[in-house]
């Protein structure tokens, strides 16, 4: 008779469907990025007068933002499907840096550099959000519709809000107003990422899984302990 070796269970990979609430933080940042795309259409006139720029300079800044966003969005889509938090957090941080550079720009070089940084961050988080929205299961249609509707509003609001802030305060506030929203998106994204990690670790640990043999499994001799008082075989 051989020992019946203990059977361990290989954890089953938890369901990778993305909960809709995990997109709140990245969604806030992505919508802010859409606002930043069109804000120059309203604040550009004030920006030109303050920095002594031409309309070509402001147009070039908008193009730099757009091109950077498109390039980064490809990476965001490719990596964001599996690493929403890992892509979104650094992308939002890059956005914050870029917005601050633009807001405190003293010339064309700083303006273009800030727009490139902002565009890279915005494209990354927008691509990750779009890719993850596609993996929200049965709620996918509703999630995509909400994001698309809010995105359209952000694009439309950019020029009007940018001009209003530039007239009432200064053109720099048209960009600085985005920083609190980006910080909020960053915090919500980080918290959601921690919750997702803990939840999936617990689900993986409690899953029944697929059995596989113990590393020391194999035919090994085994005998039951002798009953009390048994002397063993006589030779």
Q: Give the N-terminus to C-terminus distance in angstroms.
A: 23 Å
Q: Write down the Rg.
A: 28 Å
Which segments are poorly predicted (pLDDT under 50) over 5 or more consecutive residues? 6-15
By CATH, the superfamily comes out as MFS general substrate transporter like domains
- Under CATH, the topology can be stated as Growth Hormone, Chain: A
**Individual helix count:** 8
Topology:
Layout: E1 7-10, H1 24-38, H2 40-51, H3 55-80, H4 84-103, H5 108-133, H6 140-168, H7 173-176, H8 178-206, E2 210-213
Helix pairs in contact: 1-5, 1-6, 1-8, 2-3, 2-6, 3-5, 4-5, 4-8
What characteristics describe this protein?
single chain; 235 residues; mainly alpha; Growth Hormone, Chain: A; 8 helices
Description of the molecule:
With 235 residues, the chain is mainly α. The protein has a single domain, classed as MFS general substrate transporter like domains (Growth Hormone, Chain: A). Helices cover 69% and strands 3% of the residues. Strands 1-2 form a two-stranded antiparallel ribbon. Helix 1 crosses helix 5, helix 3 runs parallel beside helix 5 and helix 4 packs antiparallel against helix 8. About 4% of the residues have low confidence.
